[in-house]
Amino acid sequence: MNGSDTERDARSSRRAFLKTSTMAMAGGVAAQFGVLPAVHAAGSDEIRVGLIGCGERGTGAAQNAIESSPGVKLMAMGDVFADHIDKSLANLEKVRDSVDVPEDRRFVGFDAYEKVLASDVNYVILATPPGFRPLHLKAAVTAGKNIFAEKPVAVDGPGIRSVLEAHEEAKTKGLAIGVGTQRRHQAGYRETMKRIQDGAIGEIVEARVYWNQGPIWVHPRQDGWSDMEWQLRNWYYFTWLCGDHIVEQHVHNLDVANWALKSHPIGAVGLGGRQVRTGPEYGNIYDHFAVDYEYEKGVRVASYCRQMPNCENNVSEALVGSKGFCQANKYSITGPRPWQFPGQDNKPYTQEHTDLIASIRAGKPYNELKTVAESTLTAILGRMAAYTGKAVTWDQALNSKEDLMPSRVDWDAKLDVAPVAMPGQTEPV
Amino acid sequence: MYLSVFASCLLLAAYSLVTRSTISPAVPVTATPEEFKPYAETIPGTQVKFEMVAIPGGTYQMGSPATEPHRPSDEGPQHPVTIRPFWMGKYEVTWDEYDLFAFGTGIEKSPNRTGTTNSEEQQVADAITRPTPPYADPTFGYGRSGHPAISMTHHAAMEYTRWLSAKTGKIYRLPTEAEWEYACRAGSTAAYSFGDDAAKLGEYAWYSANNSSRPHRVGRKKPNAWGLYDMEGNVAEWVLDLYDKDFYKTINPLIPAVGPVLLPTEQEYPYVVRGGGWTDAAADLRCAARRASTDEWSRQDPQLPQSIWWHTDATFVGFRIVRPVEEQENLEGLKSKVKKLE
């Protein structure tokens, strides 16, 4: 490499910045949670991962965890479908030296999560469809495991209450819990939000958050599939499993609003429906929502999400302050104190494991569960407002008696598809 | 250095003599030198049009001299390369075109609404796998109509050209790295197509110094000497070649290499992008500047396997197409070998 090669690397500030920002973040975490142990001998502080939910996200999370820190091994896997585990293992070939999951630590079935938790793992990744998350969180906390849970953390009020109980128990037990709202571990978002909270745009008076995109995958029912197999394989389209896309996906953007405002809404009014995705393969979820959230002091957050083809797309968060404006997803602040994140991002999906594992090894485990439970409930509140057409309060959503989980979850369970919610007719429960 | 069109015709004739007739009859090469002129083509079944510029064949020095300021070692040694004539997209491929492939917009369904049978081309095109939907907005809010398509993988760009070939019955593909640089230079031996003075770059290119925030509509700056717009800047452009920093060292520096290319494999990375983009510094827009793709360009893709169609962190990447007058043998029937593990 000659002088100009070095110069090129330095010139490409985005590429060069990557390393700096990642190190800066690790430093930040160390400062926050105590000093990182200098050496990780394979032994006492080895992270032994159990993966519960082996779809493509779970598999991605397992690889992220392995790549995030030294001394991380995948030791056990559980899923309701054996084919998910086989495919997951094949896709983890790249990191096979850190995968040690013999046949007797591959668990299949609805009780697979219990078997993973009973194995000798100390860090579980919960990545099944979100409907199961409260059950798995509770069991994992009871079993005394450190947890990385995918977002959202529930699909209904009863689920959120269960998760909040798990949060308290985890605090008592000193367990670490990270949740997959990865923007909170993304260098650009963190730096932006630090400035927002230092008053760079004054008081936030309004925010607009969006996840408008095209359609996603769908798995129409195949011959021989039971109700349960079809709904699990096509889980996105059933509210009991997914929470609807405002909960499953738009929670990311709502989480940014809550993060910026350091609070959650007190109520919401919303619109929504299914206009394009009307066939039976689309289960019972909506394809668009628009929700007007009210926070304390009259602050409003406008939220939009849509999954329709050939429409204008937008995935972003804008914060309007009394003294400036922030386009959070562009890491950009305009107004009297303009600022732009100066470089390239880190790898947020890896960083969230780096940070969590560092906190465990430093003996200062952190717990994000309550924060993300609130963001999840924010999304559930919006869904309830849109489904019913009524004004719904935070407390109504939190204390909702609507338990979406079917009374019996097994392969032969008869599962009718719940009717699509009809505003003005569907009642808040 | 320029080479006369006369010489390029000779070259074409000579090449034709040695070419075996292995081109699929479904995709005939019909162009003769007499027809070798610019044209516009409407994608069948749509209103969407794209323009192609005729690029005469020739021989040029590929790479940059060690004395060129800001020049990293992967641009050398310089070596002579002979390029056969081809057409090249006047502009970068826009969303207007790419959406037809990626999202099937504006394409009549099969069987089509008029009740007539779709053409053979249409059926072949329909059989090509389309990208799986992206999880976010692949435009990232940077504009759609008239704007360069961005964020697609090398595999996706190759599949687009295969789809377009099937739709139109002509061979469209990504340019080789050697073709791209030849077309970018348009005869220039300097750092840029217009000379060495980076102060003039803003007349030709969108890049970090004159536009730090977004890619722009195609064709809004001056074209190069051969009438190609945005070769430098706006979006960095995929070429066919795998990236190897030492590739030029493997080429004989004394005899012109004819159509050199480092063929794509089943690997997802690293492939070459050329021309620099809206996020890049002036030096990265030099005609010879090479950049390699990496998995960093998908760092926000949380799934495993990651999408083979969309990058989550490559808003600076797009592409343009070429059409060979006579396809070189080692590119005949070329298609991406990248596969998602199922």
Structure, described:
The complex is a heterodimer of chains A (429) and B (342). Helices cover 38% and strands 18% of the residues of chain A. Chain A is built from 15 helices and 15 strands. In chain A, the strands form two sheets. A nine-stranded mixed β-sheet of chain A has the order 14-13-12-11-7-10-9-8-15. In chain A, strands 3-2-1-4-5-6 form a six-stranded parallel β-sheet, sandwiched between helices. In chain A, 51% of the residues are buried. In chain B, the strands form three sheets. In chain B, strands 1-2-5-11 form a four-stranded antiparallel β-sheet, with no helix packed on it. In chain B, strands 9-8-6-10 form a four-stranded mixed β-sheet. Chain B has a three-stranded mixed β-sheet with strand order 3-4-7. In chain B, α3 packs antiparallel against α4. Chain B is globular and about 50 Å long. The interface between A and B is large, with 46 and 34 residues.
Mean pLDDT of chain A: 91
What gyration radius of chain B follows from the Cα positions, in whole Å? 19 Å
Main beta sheet strand tally, sense and closure of chain B = 4 strands, antiparallel
Spatial separation of the terminal alpha carbons of chain A:
67 Å
Structural class of chain A: alpha/beta
What multimeric state do the chains show?
Answer: heterodimer
Q: Beta-sheet strand percentage of chain B?
A: 5-15%
The H/E string of chain B reads HEEEEEHHHHHEEEEEE
Globally, the shape of chain A reads globular
The helix content of chain A, as a percent range, equals: 25-40%
Question: What is the helix/strand order of chain A?
Answer: HHEHEHEHEHEHEHEHHHHEEEEEEEHHEH
Q: Structural class per helix/strand content of chain B?
A: alpha+beta
Name the CATH superfamily classification of chain B: paralog of FGE (formylglycine-generating enzyme)
Compute the separation of the termini of chain B in Å: 49 Å
Please bin the fraction of helical residues of chain B: 10-25%
